[in-house]
Amino acid sequence: xxxxxxxxxxxxxxxxxxxxxxxxxxxxxxxxxxxxxxxxxxxxxxxxxxxxxxxxxxxxxxxxxxxxxxxxxxxxxxxxxxxxxxxxxxxxxxxxxxxxxxxxxxxxxxxxxxxxxxxxxxxxxxxxxxxxxxxxxxxxxxxxxxxxxxxxxxxxxxxxxxxxxxxxxxxxxxxxxxxxxxxxxxxxxxxxxxxxxxxxxxxxxxxxxxxxxxxxxxxxxxxxxxxxxxxxxxxxxxxxxxxxxxxxxxxxxxxxxxxxxxxxxxxxxxxxxxxxxxxxxxxxxxxxxxxxxxxxxxxxxxxxxxxxxxxxxxxxxxxxxxxxxxxxxxxxxxxxxxxxxxxxxxxxxxxxxxxxxxxxxxxxxxxxxxxxxxxxxxxxxxxxxxxxxxxxxxxxxxxxxxxxxxxxxxxxxxxxxxxxxxxxxxxx
Length: 428
Ligand code: MN
Prior knowledge:
Blueprint: E1 33-38, E2 41-48, E3 51-54, H1 66-71, H2 78-81, H3 85-99, H4 106-110, E4 113-115, E5 120-122, E6 130-133, H5 137-147, E7 163-165, E8 171-173, E9 178-179, E10 182-185, E11 195-198, E12 202-203, E13 206-212, E14 231-238, E15 241-242, H6 243-249, E16 263-265, E17 270-271, E18 279-280, E19 305-306, E20 309-315, E21 324-330, H7 338-346, E22 357-359, H8 373-376, E23 384-385, E24 391-392, E25 400-407, E26 415-416, E27 420-425
Parallel strand pairs: 6-22, 8-16, 9-27
Antiparallel strand pairs: 1-2, 1-5, 2-3, 3-4, 6-7, 10-11, 12-15, 13-14, 13-22, 14-16, 14-17, 18-19, 20-21, 20-25, 23-24, 25-26, 25-27
The protein binds manganese (II) ion.
Manganese (II) ion (MN) binds near residues 132, 205, 207, 361 and 362.
């Protein structure tokens, strides 16, 4: 079982009244961490209702852990995320005590609430590494069927949590523009040279990201039953993908320029601790599938999965009639759990470095929720109709893609992630 405490109590309320609304993404049970910019520079904050509590400004109200918060000024979340889960919990508990209804420090803290709409969100920290997995077997099968109709799923899939090493410098927070990439594309005819042109197959990938914390030693794998001690928190992640560039370059070493031009994340890191009520055992593997090898096996009864409902929406520049919902799916259906991804990543002796960012891979579901346009349009064969009457095979200039995430469970307060949005700008 996973121990819950007063920070998960559904009866708890905040003196920030907007945090108590039933559809609030950031109630007092959430308290995600993020970095934002004010005229005083980059500041560490916690989202509450529609506001941000400036933690550096209220550091003296946080008691023993105030020093950790002060260290984060100008450095992002690294000084916090580099510590252990006890320190993460201590900061979260201290912030909760300041924000709860009736708190004696409430009046002092209220002076350091900033409206979310008034500030720019920054990257929570610069990840040391970025690894993107491929953990949805539905996505792997759907995409595999487009490229290899007779052989959609490669034989290693059910044994190996497949991943590629991504690019860190182009990971940016929600709202940063995304420039359409140019690149080599498959020759139009046999023997011809490849064209270099703006991508005509720009896609999104609806994913969950998670930041690793603490540090492990090189040469010492992190076992699957200890992996959550290294998972600090989660965000939404869009692994923008140029399918035409990807299709031409990906064999034999995997994706490169088809993906490295941009990745967007939601700027609030929802802590693994806030997500504890939404942990669950993943669905059992279908009959006939192999069980995970011993180093990847979750202990019996482990709640290794996490039930976060993600949705993708597309808003075109042409209309004002609202966004079109593209698809939704839960991360609980993934074939590999976050713990299995960490255990696999470190199984060869590679270490965890605090601040590493891992992506789940595109999340599609058994019941037909699809996490990318290549799946929705079956490789551009079946255009998708938007609310404004136009159609899409892939993303067009001016399109805005918005990911949303939410956790719901009877008996608990629902929590959200905030938006992970990016608008496509024209190629140079
Ligand atoms: Mn991906």
